[in-house]
Amino acid sequence: MFRGLFLLKIGQKICNYGEKVYNFVSATQRLRMENNIDLTVQLKHYFGFDTFKGDQEAIIRNLLAGRDTFVLMPTGGGKSLCYQLPALLMDGTAIVISPLIALMKNQVDAIRQVSADDGIAHFMNSSLNRSALDQVKSDVLAGHTKLLYVAPESLTKEENVDFLKQVKISFYAVDEAHCISEWGHDFRPEYRRIRPIVNEIGVAPVIALTATATDKVRDDIKKNLGMPDADEFKSSFNRPNLYYEVRPKTKDIDKDIVKFIKQNPHKSGIIYCLSRRKVEELAEVLRANDINARAYHAGMDTPTRTQTQDGFIMEEIDVIVATIAFGMGIDKPDVRFVIHYDIPKSLEGYYQETGRAGRDGGEGKCITFYAYKDLQKLEKFMEGKPVAEQDIGRQLLQETASYAETSVCRRRVLLHYFGEEFTEENCHNCDNCLHPKAKVEAKEDLRLALEVIKAIKENFKVPHVINVLTGNPTEEVIAHKHDDLELFGAGDKKEDRYWNTILRQALLNGYIYKEVENYGLLKLTPEGLVFIRKPESFMISEDNDFDSDYVDPEAGTSALDEQLFMMLKDLRKKVAKEKQIPPYVIFQDQSLEAMATVYPVTIEELKNIPGVGEGKAKRYGQEFCHLIMKHCEENEIERPYDLRVRTVANKSKNKVAIIQSIDRKVDLEVLANSKGLDFEELLDELDAIVDSGTKLDINYYLKTIMDADQIEDIFEYYRESETDDLDEAIDELGDEYTDDQIRLVRIKFISEVGN
């Protein structure tokens, strides 16, 4: 009896599955017969366009024919239309799997404009209350809804799966499909469960769409979505209207950004920062300088985020300072600049974020600030993650570093990363092409590098190849006995940076490639093997140097008034001698540069200068203001109020709480955790507090981590040093003390001696 019931249930499931397949095949056959419809007429009817862009029509016809489809199309290429139009034409409801609530809302609002029935498009996610969700389900079951947007988290809920089993599905669209791949820049584990859920709900064609995907990511997407035979449509990644530039990231980055925006008044722009704290601080600085800017990050409440996003789209806000949570799918065509305050974690993320500029084909400036220390910080954040994940993260970071440091056409580097070749020597729209470096012959060095790759069996990554070239006996080199090779150390007269340049430009020129399956292993191409036997001219330009202490040799200081700057330095030296303290304790160089740019003549104006708080302004300010006023009068200088870059008096909302906690002698590590900061970020806060003139007593904490002799040793270093530069201090003291110990004693020194 039980066996009979079991077989009966199995039979019913087979019949139900067979019915779904039959219905799907029948629908597909009908669509194939109808596939000769004039799609241009439908495009005009629904969206008002006369012609399709690029591969849009071919993609739509492929989907109408019931074929799995993979679409690789850059931002602004019109991906959304590729599933919106067929959804409107086909029987049933298209399930659009989308990662962001903001993206869903934006697209649902847009689709509803093409129909008199608001029920034509809905989204189903955690933002809906019960009554709103019931209305969505009612419209879907009634056949009114052609597009249903679902977050991957919502798709996997059992109640939603049961509901969707009742729905006639026309197809599944997986938007932002790179999220499915651990090699993608926005990896979302929930995306890995899409295929099993789709199989459970019911068979239908799948279209996967992404704006950024390397060969590795593309293979990963197709494999995980169970669509290995999908027809691929790949558009060019070249955006000729976008200007790419990488600038050195210095202590004056806020000032640089303010000046850039002032030079581009009333233009829409996005500034990306990696941390929420920096987002809020920078937005505050911009507003203090009369720039219409707002912050946006995932830690803000939903109404505030929605209001900010809508304000930007409606041109009520000029500049958004955001984490990467902002921008995905935001359809604003006239963003005129995208600034990266911090270097992105991957080139895919960088390409997608910069791609939000100039989507209308007009001006789009993409400015990135880069310092190698930022990469080191990002690598540090990976600690504690699984080893495989750390390895992937480091590989992606190295690709980003290669892009930032290269002196080759940036467009060429970007397109090469995505598997597209840019054959022109000069794109005329990036910093490297507009200001090219002189080239040198490197034929013999390239042959040497290729011979090393061959000698180590084409089985190692860039750092290992460079270690063999330069004769660096690392553990890995010794373990593989590569220090016994005849070529070991053959390139030791050149620095690592030079060999990096050789290998990067060899990749661009097709002499080597990085293997997709074993990401990062260098392999020789047939052209590379020929080059070893018969080398030809190979001209290279050395990489840009983005050391954190980078100074443009033609720029001098960043002060507008060099004469005043030197006078202020002389005054600082005189005051320091009287007080018997190092000059930097009074005002640092960047503060003097700002004074020689904006000419503060009152204590109140002086407090707007970076690094000058109320304490320092009162203690030292009068003499400096008097000197500046006298200089302005004698030289008939009209003070340029329009050039003033104001800092925010209290940039950190944590400042008062931190001072009060230290007064109560709270352990600094406990304090950092309570404020949601890592220890390095807390030290940044303490640096800012004491540099602006506020006294902090951290002796209670220092005594728990160091003995008195150690503290005195570092303290004396600062007393005798002419600079408080941290790198110099670490070079001098780093063998005996940690970076944190050196920074903490500096905070004690500035507080006790200068404040």
Strand-residue fraction?
A: 5-15%
Mean pLDDT, to the nearest integer, reads 81
Distance between the termini: 91 Å
What kind of sheet is the major sheet? 7 strands, parallel
Radius of gyration: 30 Å
Question: Regarding CATH, which class of the largest domain?
Answer: Alpha Beta
What is the annotated CATH architecture of the largest domain? Answer: 3-Layer(aba) Sandwich
Strand order of the largest sheet: 3-4-2-5-6-1-7
Q: In DSSP terms, counting alpha (H) and pi (I) runs of 4 or more, how many helices?
A: 35
Helix content: 40-55%
Structural class: alpha/beta
Low-confidence stretches: 1-34, 548-558
Number of E strands: 17
Please give the domain count. Answer: 5
Shape: globular
Q: Tell me the CATH topology of the largest domain.
A: Rossmann fold
Tell me what you see in this structure:
The structure is a single chain. By secondary structure, this protein is of the alpha/beta class. It folds into five domains: 213 residues, 3-Layer(aba) Sandwich (Rossmann fold), CATH 3.40.50; 193 residues, P-loop containing nucleotide triphosphate hydrolases (Rossmann fold, 3-Layer(aba) Sandwich), CATH 3.40.50; 101 residues, Winged helix-like DNA-binding domain superfamily/Winged helix DNA-binding domain (Arc Repressor Mutant, subunit A); 58 residues, no CATH class; 100 residues, Arc Repressor Mutant, subunit A, CATH 1.10.10.1390. 50% of the residues lie in helices and 10% in strands. The strands form four sheets. It has a seven-stranded parallel β-sheet with strand order 3-4-2-5-6-1-7, sandwiched between helices.
